[in-house]
Every structure is written in C-alpha cells, then in structure tokens.
From TrEMBL:
Domain of life: Bacteria
Biased composition (Pro residues): 155-230
Range of residues in the leader sequence: 1-25
Region described as Disordered: 145-256
Entry-linked PROSITE patterns: FILAMIN_REPEAT
UniProt key word Cytoplasm: no
Keywords of this entry: Signal
Name of the protein in question: Ig-like domain repeat protein
C-alpha cells in the first residue's frame, strides 16, 4: 500500500517545534534506521527506499532496501502518517503537531510545500488518490475528512472573459441584487431577469437570450440569469460541511457520513482501485468502516458499516484489498462490500491488531515479535517471521519481494528488512539411529511437507559429516515420495559423531531448508601419557615434557599446550607434530610459574580422542641484600654482617613480581645455643617486586640474629608459584 499512518491506538503526545527542516546524512557505513516513536512508514519502489516517520522527534528518515540509514530530516512536528504521490515524486506527511500537511521531494527530502489545516486536532490519517491528498482531522465526535489538490491554481476573478457584466456608462450591479437589463428597469428579485417571451434587446445593447447564458464572446456579456451564489460558510462544529470544488486548494468538511466520527479516521488507498478511499473510525471500540468514491473530488459513499460490534471491534488499521471489493481491518478481518453495505468475508488467524497487504493481496499481520504472512484468503501462514522484539509497524515493498518492520527494543524502534517474505517454509524431519558400528549399514528416514504444496518428486541433497570428512561427503540424492517421506542407507567408515545432513534447495514458492541427525559410533581408546607431573622446579628452569602416544589408526599427531597459572597468561600451544617412531613427542616449557601442561590427541576414524595433563611447579626467585653493617666476618660456621649495637640493620628484598604479592619476613634470635623466632610479618612488595625493611638495632652488644624473606603459596597474595624459602642472613651486633 502507498500509505502508512500510525494508529491512534498507540498515538503519543507530540511536541510542538520549529517547522524548519534540518538534514542528517549517513556515513559510508550506514547504521540501521531507527525512530523513537513510529509515525508512519511507506516504501518507494523506484528509489528502493523506505521512509519512516518519528512522531516524538518530528523527523522523517530515508533508509535503503536493507534498512540502512541514508538521510534524516527534522521539522515535521508530531508526524503521524506518510504517503507517496501516484508518480512517486512527492512524499506527503501529516504533521499533527503543527497542523500541517508537508510535501517533500521523495529523492532529496527537500520541502516542496506546506499547507496549514484549520483544526485543533490533526491532520492524522493521510492517503493519496485521484490526484489529491486526503487527510482526516477533528476532535472527539468531530472527526472529518479533507483534501488538498497539489496542482490547484487560484481562479481568475469572477468576471466575464473580455468585458464587464454591464455597459461602461452604467454603474456596476451589486452582487447581492438580481441581474438587470442595461436599459430596462430593475427586475424584481423574485422574478427571472428576462422573460422567455420578451423580444431581444435593441441592437445597440448587448444581446441577451431570454433564458440562455450571456452573450457571444464578441459582444459585451449580459448580466447573469440567476442571483450570484454566496460563498459557502464552514459548517458549525458537530455538523457536516457543504464544501464544494470552489472552496480552494485545501478543502475541509468533506465527510459524507450522516454524523461525524469519534476521532480522525485511519485512511487507505490502493493503486489498483484509483478513486477509492477506505476510512476506519479510530479511537472507539465500535469502529465504523467506509469506502468512498473520491474520483470527482467530492466524496460519495460506496459502502458503509456503522460500528455496532457486529463486524468490527475497534479499528486500528484499514487496507483496501487489491483486486477485490473488500477491506482488510486490523490486518486480519476481511469485510466485503456490495450494494452500499459490508459483510464478513473471513478472518486471517493472525491475532494481529495491525498489518499491511501487498499488491497481490498477500497479508502480513503482526503481534508482538511475530509477523504472520498469509496468501490471499489463506487459512495457514505461508511463513511466520520472528522480529526479535516488539513489532510496531510493517510495510510491503511494492513488488512484495521484501517486508519491512519497525521493531522495538529499549525504547528504540529499528527498521528491519526481511527478504523472501512470501516464501513458504517447508517442514523437514530427519531421523537416524542413535548408535551404530563402523562398517555396518544403517538407515536414515525423514519427511518433508509444506502448507503450500511442494513440486512433485522433491529432490533432497544428502551429506555425511565425520572425522574423515569434516567438511561433508556428498551421498546420492534422494527423492521424496508423494507423501513427502524418504529414506536412504549408508555404511559409516569412521567412528565418533557421524552427522547426516539433508538439504532442500527451495523453489519459487518455498525457502531452502536444512535438517540433520547424528549417529554416535564408538571408537577404540588409545593410550597417551605425559611426564613430569607434580615436580617442582627452580624459577626459570627449562623443563622438557614428553608425551607418548599408543596405537592409532591413521592420525599420529599430538599437540602439547602450556597454561601458566594466573588469569593474565593464556594457554599456549608449545608444539604440534607427529610422534617419532617410538611414539614420543617433546616440548620445552619455561617454568616461571606453576604450569598445567596438556597433551592432546584429536583421534581418527577408529580411535577416540584423548587428553592428558601434567602439572609442573615453579618456585619464585628471591634475593636479599643487607646494609648498615661495618664489616662481615665468620662467627662459628656462618658468615655474619657486623653492626654497631646502635646501628639499624636494613634488609632489601627482590622477588619475582606478581600483582598484589607480599613477602613473609622471618626474624630469629640466638639464645643459649638455639635459634628462637622473634616473629614473622607479611610485607607487600612494590610494583617491581622490591621492598627494604628496617629491622632497627638492639642497643646492646653480643646480640646474634638471622633474617630471611619467603614466598608462601596462597598466603603471599597469590598462588601462581610454589612456596619458596629464602636463605638466612646472619647479623651480629657489637660495641
């Protein structure tokens, strides 16, 4: 359909804003077109564009055939509907916020014209047919109809073609008085200006036929035979107007109904029925429906249903049905019309409250996140499309090759394009045995059906996917029987998960469809070992890990992975290759952290995959320096740092860095031939893994002490290394 207006059932309050238009163009990579409050949508075949209106922003967006943003203009306040002219050159918008109809160039979105509508409510619905723009307007119980003639030009003043209506020597006749003869006394207002039996006027006077229009073009015209018609006044609120073709470019009060409607109506036209206009009474549950003939410019009723719940229950949307004397209401209810009345013609079981109908009569009704597509008069959907969100509006491409939907999520409605919307989706099932054996024949069965009949002798492609053919091995094509059932046999040569994939490529009326089923075929287990599990190594040691692979069928490849402890280090493939003649493969791992080493055999056609792990542990690197002493010397069996009894002893530590790591400092005192603990303390290292600690001084001579720093797995702030104890540093305090 060429018109799309937003339903009043979902209408939001609109903001009054400036009428000036501003333009936003898309970049080279277009984002999806979106709006905050849908205000109508229409598709343009020639330009392959979709125009989408935003009520709250007062904008109109042009999108490409894929839904990508091309251009956006603002300055159309409270826009509630869009429609294209018959030739597609002009886009018309109902701007309810500023009470205007705005004409824009469809190619550039530049404003061509604006018409102010004399109303406090509307225009809301908008449509185009018979060379005119039709719009609905009016407050409660004052819903009416108006039109705009875009090609209208102001008429010349109401005078005769070449001469004034009286002789130049005579004063003009007042328009409110009956016409008079130039030389005769005035005619009484209740009498005709010239009696049929009177003789013609004197040759010196303008000739006048007694009962005919004024004189020939070469002579001065006679006065009109009838009194001039007073301009038709606008009808009072609540009454019908008697607008005529002389009202001007914008005509209002054109509703032909015996009483005005509750709210501005939803409108629709169809190119296959030029001159017809459908109206639906919105905003009230009864919902009257009409079809008007507007080809003459003055609407005349073709059919009317006065809402009484017998045929409708609330009208959100109306669509003229192409090629039939029917109206589609709310995307699901068909009403036929004949002899001025409507009758029930069937229902599409969509459950929708809105929808659209294509030029060939295909219907798309939506509810929530589902769009149901029906063939004309169909009882089962051709296809059900999932939009992934709350659907607010749909619009067919004029050739029905695409269906556009505005889909809401988190307060934004995004334009989505669905290709092949009329194609029926077949139902395909595939059933294979759950288990099998290598070298043993098995049978796979299935069935393909569709709500739209499939061609006879449907051909199905079959492929087997297994470890020997991971990209799939084509098997003979299978033909479905008349009832859609099929079967085939195969003898698997490899074990593991064997997938049988069946594909229907589709046709002119059906989408492609693919289904598969899996057979589990057991494989023999092989042996795989990995050395060095549980061993502890010094920091930075290069450790060789060796994997040994047992008997296999064809694959002799093994991978060795190293995964250091800590989330900051990834699992790394250290080596991948074929084992040697002894079945071994080795890799060197730099042990700076505890590391999980993994050997992986991925299996082959007859032997199952296998994975083994080995954990190697790595100590940290610790170094300590002592400062503040005046000499070193041996006391007993240890080398001591000698300090004056009042001199502070400083211990500096450097340890392998890890975020948040702490050292544990142990201090012991020598007394009566034994070492006694003076305490332990965890001290956090800096960003380079260093820290200097002041141990103080005892203040007396003869004191012997020793100190060391350690890393304790789990207690030093992390667990990426194994517990490591530093060496003791011996201190001796003298005079």
């Amino acid at each position: 359909m060429r018109r799309r207006s937003i339903s009043t059932a979902t209408a939001l309050a609109v903001l009054f804003s400036s009428a000036a238009l501003t333009v936003t163009a898309a970049g080279t990579a277009s984002a999806a077109a979106s709006v905050a409050a849908p205000g109508g949508m229409v598709a343009h075949a020639g330009l392959q564009r979709v125009f989408v209106a935003d009520r709250s922003g007062g904008t109109i967006t042009a999108a490409d055939w894929s839904g990508g943003l091309i251009k956006r203009v603002s300055g159309v306040p409270g826009v509630t509907g869009l429609v294209l002219s018959d030739d597609g050159s002009t886009l018309y918008a109902a701007a309810e916020g500023s009470h205007e109809v705005v004409a824009l160039d469809a190619g550039t979105l530049a404003v061509k014209n604006r018409w102010t509508i004399d109303t406090t409510e509307g225009p809301r619905g908008i449509a185009f047919t018979a060379g005119k723009v039709w719009f609905s307007y009016g407050d409660q119980w004052d819903g009416n109809l108006g039109s705009i003639d875009p090609d209208w030009t102001a008429p010349e003043p109401p005078v005769e073609p070449t001469e004034p209506p009286v002789e130049p020597t005579e004063p003009p006749v007042e328009p409110t008085e009956p016409p008079v003869e130039p030389t005769e006394p005035p005619v009484e207002p209740t009498e005709p200006p010239v009696e049929p039996t009177e003789p013609p006027v004197e040759p010196t006077e303008p000739p006048v036929e007694p009962t005919e229009p004024p004189v020939e073009p070469t002579e001065p015209p006679a006065e009109p035979a009838e009194p001039p018609v007073e301009p038709t006044a606008a009808a009072p609120a609540g009454e019908l107007s008697t607008a005529s073709e002389e009202d001007g470019q914008v005509r209002m009060g054109l509703s032909p109904h015996s009483s005005l409607w509750y709210d501005p109506a939803v409108l629709d036209t169809d190119p296959s029925s030029p001159g017809l206009l459908a109206m639906g009474e919105a905003g009230i549950s009864t919902g009257s429906v009409s079809v008007l003939d507007v080809s003459s410019g003055t609407p005349e009723l073709v059919a009317h249903h006065n809402g009484n719940y017998s045929l409708t229950y609330g009208v959100n949307d109306v669509d003229l049905v192409p090629g039939a004397s029917q109206v589609l209401v709310n995307g699901n209810k068909r009403l036929s019309y004949a002899n001025g009345a409507f009758a029930d013609a069937g229902t599409y079981p969509t459950g929708s409250h809105n929808g659209d109908i294509s030029g060939d009569g295909t219907v798309a009704g939506f509810l929530g996140d589902a769009i149901s597509v029906y063939a004309p008069n169909g009882t089962k959907p051709l296809r059900t499309l999932s939009t992934g969100g709350d659907t607010a509006d749909v619009e067919w491409a004029p050739d029905a090759s695409r269906l556009f939907a505005l889909v809401g999520s988190n307060g934004t409605y995004t334009l989505k394009a669905f290709t092949g919307p009329k194609l029926n989706v077949p139902t395909l099932t595939v059933s294979a045995p759950s288990k099998g054996t290598i070298g043993t024949k098995l049978t796979v069965t299935g069935k393909i059906t569709a709500t739209v009949p499939l061609p006879a002798g449907v051909q199905l492609k079959v492929a087997r996917i297994d470890v020997a053919s991971p990209s799939g091995k084509a098997l003979p094509t299978v033909t479905a029987k008349a009832d859609g059932t099929f079967s085939f046999t195969d003898t698997p040569a490899a074990g593991g998960d064997v997938v049988y994939r069946v594909t229907y490529s589709g046709d002119a009326k059906h989408t492609p469809v693919v289904k598969s089923d899996t057979v589990v075929i057991p494989r023999t287990s092989t042996s795989l070992t990995l050395n060095n599990n549980g061993k502890v190594y010094s920091y930075g040691a290069d450790v060789t890990f060796t994997a040994h692979l047992g008997k296999t069928y064809a694959n002799r490849k093994v991978e060795i992975w190293a995964n250091p402890y800590g989330s900051d280090k990834p699992n790394v493939l250290v080596k991948s290759g074929t084992v040697n003649s002894s079945g071994n493969i080795s890799a060197v791992v730099d042990m700076k952290r505890d590391t999980t080493v993994t050997a992986v055999f991925k299996g082959d056609a007859k032997y199952a995959p296998k994975t083994v792990t080995s954990v190697g542990y790595a100590k940290v690197k610790i170094s300590n320096t002592v400062s503040g002493h005046y000499k070193t010397g041996v006391v007993g069996s240890h080398n001591y740092y000698w300090f004056r009894k009042t001199k502070d002893a400083l211990i500096s530590t450097t340890m392998s860095y890890y975020p948040g790591r702490s050292e544990r400092l142990d201090l012991q005192i020598y007394y009566n031939g034994s070492w006694y603990s003076s305490g332990s303390e965890y001290i956090q290292l800096d960003g380079s893994g260093k820290r200097t600690v002041n141990l103080g001084s005892p203040g007396e001579a003869g004191v012997k002490a020793r100190v060391r720093t350690n890393y304790i797995n789990g207690s030093s702030g992390d667990n990426v290394n194994s517990t490591t104890y530093g060496s003791w540093k011996y201190l001796y305090f003298t005079n």
